[in-house]
């Protein structure tokens, strides 16, 4: 029963992780291509407060949780 719940959670995290990765902008889509200098350094300093920074944090935590769940589901104990 626990294995079934963890498998469902694993699939949900897979779908969530795919969506969060697709929502992120590419490296070349930032301000560095059109506006340089001061604006680029301002956004670089405040990146964690922006939506892009939040998406990066969500990606990191979801990937860690995905990896842990993949390891747990691979164990023969459950």
Question: In a nutshell, what does this entry contain?
Answer:
The protein has 78 residues and is mostly helical. 69% of the residues lie in helices and 0% in strands.
Description:
With 78 residues, this protein is mostly helical. The chain has a domain at 49-78. Helix content is 69%, strand content 0%. The longest helix is centred in the last third of the chain and has 24 residues, at 51-74. The chain starts with a helix and ends with a helix.
Keywords:
78 residues, 0% strand
Outline the secondary-structure elements:
Blueprint: H1 2-23, H2 38-45, H3 51-74
Structural class: mainly alpha
Radius of gyration of CA atoms, rounded to a whole number: 18 Å
Helix content: 55-70%
Q: Give me the count of strands.
A: 0
Helix-strand string = HHH
Count of DSSP-assigned helices: 3
Low-confidence stretches: none
The biggest sheet amounts to:
none
């Amino acid at each position: 029963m626990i294995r079934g719940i963890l498998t469902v959670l694993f699939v949900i995290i897979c779908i969530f992780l795919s969506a969060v990765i697709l929502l992120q902008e590419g490296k070349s889509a930032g301000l560095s291509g059109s506006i340089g200098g001061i604006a680029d350094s301002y956004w670089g300093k405040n990146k964690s407060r922006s939506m892009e920074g939040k998406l990066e944090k969500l990606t990191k935590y979801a990937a860690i949780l995905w990896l842990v769940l993949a390891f747990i589901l691979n164990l023969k104990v459950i």
